[in-house]
Specification:
Length: 319
């Protein structure tokens, strides 16, 4: 008998076809998240779960899952999954690192450039009929070429951002749990403590996984250390930055701008204060959203499910 898999969101037909070659598939075939009660009901009898970062894969869910062997998430970050609980129960957890690295680095760099050069504001300026003439200081931004980039985190995506930054002749400093001496010489970058990084950077770029230890790592005190001309970029997870402190800092021009692809509570609504500041570019969590990469992520999830359900090791295991 084929193993049973539950898929928590509508996916391209090619992905479902692949899943069906080795499993019996049921799907929440919508573009909105599966309601919790449906997920808890569906998970009862399945061997594998194809899930997204929008689902809470917690102890309660595991208590409903009588046969579950694998939770395969279509994301690199897995802070929505209680991995310890899964491990205790002998359930494999997999994620999708690697395939999304360059795409997420592209988006991170796009935010660096768009915030520094006020692209959204400038585009709105034109559309709103405010462009009357060329003037010397109109919509002036910050330079990227030769500026100091402070990377918080030095994992795969951060390294891919650094590669791009080298092409812009940026002076790169980084802070990370562990030093990476081989990368320091490769990319001519320096390790610093967090305070030095915040004080010296023109761009502070957050690229670490979320866990409770880094909750509000960037709060009021940290933002105060940043220069008035500096820009905060977060393409990792919302909870790492205290959004209330960030809002006040941006409103009071204590820092110059921010580029955010992630929020503490997603989705945010149109009246969310940070969305209504001119010096912030806000995006709806699209870091890995290129057609090619999203397909690669989905196919990696399929491969991980197939492997675990046929007794092999997954390609990208979390536990
Ligand atoms: C997206 O945020 C991911 O973790 O893949």
């Amino acid at each position: 008998m084929k193993p049973k898999i539950y898929v928590t969101r509508k996916l391209p037909e090619s992905v479902i076809t692949k899943l069906k070659t080795f499993s019996e598939v049921s799907i929440w075939n919508e573009d909105t998240p599966v309601p919790r009660e449906v997920l808890l009901r569906e998970v009862k009898e399945v061997d594998g779960l194809f899930c997204l970062l929008t689902e809470d894969i917690d102890k309660e869910l595991f208590m409903h899952a009588n046969k579950l062997k694998v939770v395969a998430s279509m994301a690199v970050g897995f802070n929505n999954i209680d991995v310890n609980e899964a491990t205790k129960r002998g359930i494999r957890v997999t994620n999708t690192p690697g395939v999304l690295t360059e795409t997420t680095a592209d988006l991170t760099f796009a935010l660096i450039m768009a915030t520094a050069r006020r692209l959204v504001e400038a585009s709105d300026y034109l559309r709103e009929g405010k462009w009357k003439t060329w003037s010397p200081m109109q919509l002036t931004g910050q330079d990227i070429y030769g500026a100091t980039l402070g990377m918080i985190g030095m994992g795969r995506i951060a390294q891919a951002v650094v590669k791009r930054a080298r092409g812009f002749n940026m002076n790169i400093i980084y802070h990370n749990r562990s030093r990476k001496p081989e990368l320091e010489s490769k990319y001519e970058m320096e390790f610093t403590d967090l305070s030095t990084l915040l004080k010296e950077s023109d761009f502070v770029c957050v690229l670490i996984p979320y866990s409770l230890e880094v909750h509000h790592l960037i709060g009021e005190k940290e933002i105060e250390m940043m220069k008035n001309s500096s820009i905060l970029i977060n393409t990792a997870r919302g909870g790492i930055v205290d959004e209330v402190a960030l809002y006040h800092a941006l409103k009071n021009k204590q820092i110059w701008a921010a580029g955010l692809d992630v929020f503490e509570k997603e989705p945010v609504s149109v009246d969310y204060p940070l969305l209504n500041l001119p010096n912030v570019i806000t995006l709806p969590h699209i870091g890995s959203a290129s057609k090619g990469t999203r397909l690669k992520m989905a196919n990696l999830v399929v491969e991980n499910l197939q492997r675990v359900l046929t007794g092999e090791s997954p390609l990208t295991a979390v536990n």
